[in-house]
Design a protein that fits this description.
Elements: H1 25-36, H2 49-68, H3 70-74, H4 83-108, H5 114-122, H6 139-157, H7 166-194, H8 198-217, H9 229-234, H10 242-260, E1 270-272, E2 277-279, H11 285-295, H12 299-312, H13 314-335
Antiparallel strand pairs: 1-2
The structure holds fe (ii) ion (2 copies).
One fe (ii) ion binds next to α4 and α7.
């Protein structure tokens, strides 16, 4: 995640019933003390309703992003250029499903059921990362997604391993380890292409040209336009600002692009000796807002595919529920 979305409209329900701040001053003080000490809040602990709501929104949007993120790459599994690349891509896409599972589970610990979370996604009320509303037009896109999209995700997600909410932080530790593999496999696939034919190099460059700017948007709006970030920072959910993360990503990626031999499509990208960072051009935030508002190239297709996949999987959920009922009845009989 793909966690661009602290600024999105809230979804889900607030399960922390009618909290009266005055009555709960002691609980609030205990919560604040844990946050101030950089400790962890666990599922059974008291927490402010707004903290819970923010986490449900962020973790579920993150989970949705992992699952919808399987679609652009899944599109290339049957067309991978070799058995080796197919096996790697299958493993990668399966990892993303696993990330979705960890994260839905983490969100459920906050008291919102998975059905409710999925319903918010399928009805279009919940967001997922806008990057997955762009199409995968060539095999190079699979490599570029690994290198840049998973690379940006790592930059976003490593600080989440220190998130104040324990179940989310622990899920992120494992997710980040797997994301590192994703980034490396993408870079490796691109390196092989860059050492190939002229046509392969051109395919990589064309793909980098399309993805570079949307990837920079993955870090979310500029800090000045990100009103919820300060509260997220205060709660120890967000650790590094959108702009700082974006800068870190750019600084780390330029050298990798040089190693690959691709040009990043930004004429303003220059090293600034004074700041010790790369300067870069202006991001088209209108495009970001448009894609967020459902007007990206693949929004409709992605959501329709996800809804169909969920409906097609109904028989699996029914079978699992029937099996669980049968096992429970069996155990009851044995206990009697
Ligand atoms: Fe992932
Ligand atoms: Fe990934």
């Amino acid at each position: 995640m793909y966690t661009q979305s602290l600024d999105q409209a809230p979804v889900g329900t607030d399960t922390n019933n009618a909290i009266d701040i005055h009555q709960d001053a002691a609980k609030q003080a205990a919560f604040d003390a844990v946050i101030d000490a950089d400790g962890k809040i666990e599922a059974q602990d008291w927490m402010p309703a707004a903290y819970r709501k923010t986490l449900v929104r962020q973790i579920s949007q993150h989970a949705h992003s992992e699952v919808v993120g399987m679609l652009p790459e899944g599109n290339w599994i049957s067309r991978a250029p070799s058995l080796k690349r197919k096996a790697i891509l299958l493993a990668k896409v399966q990892d993303e499903a696993g990330h979705g599972l960890y994260l839905y589970s983490a969100a459920e610990t906050l008291g919102t059921g998975r059905d409710e979370l999925l319903d918010a996604l399928h009805s279009g009320r919940a967001k997922y990362s806008s990057i997955f509303n762009y199409p995968t037009l060539s095999w190079a896109d699979v490599g570029v997604i690994g290198w840049l999209v998973d690379g940006a995700a790592i930059m976003n997600q490593v600080p989440l391993c220190r998130c104040s909410y324990g179940p989310y932080a622990r899920a992120m530790i494992r997710v980040c380890k797997e994301e590192s593999f994703h980034q490396r496999q993408g870079f490796d696939a691109l390196l092989a292409m860059m050492q190939g034919t002229e046509a392969q190099r051109a395919m990589v460059q064309e793909s980098v040209n399309r993805w570079w700017w949307p990837v920079l948007m993955m870090f979310g709006p500029p800090d000045a336009d990100s009103p919820n970030s300060a509260q997220g920072m205060r709660w120890g959910i967000k650790r590094i600002s959108n702009d700082d993360l974006r800068q870190k990503f750019i600084d780390a990626t330029v050298a990798q692009a040089e190693t690959l031999g691709v040009t990043l499509p930004d004429p303003d990208l220059t090293w600034n000796e004074a700041t010790g960072h790369y300067d870069f051009g202006t991001i088209n935030w209108q495009e970001f807002q448009d894609v967020l508002a459902g007007k990206g190239p693949c929004n409709t297709e992605r959501l329709a595919t996800r809804v169909k996949a969920h409906q097609d999987g109904q028989w699996v959920r029914d079978a699992a529920a029937a099996y669980a009922r049968k096992q429970a009845a069996k155990q009851q009989r044995q206990a009697a």
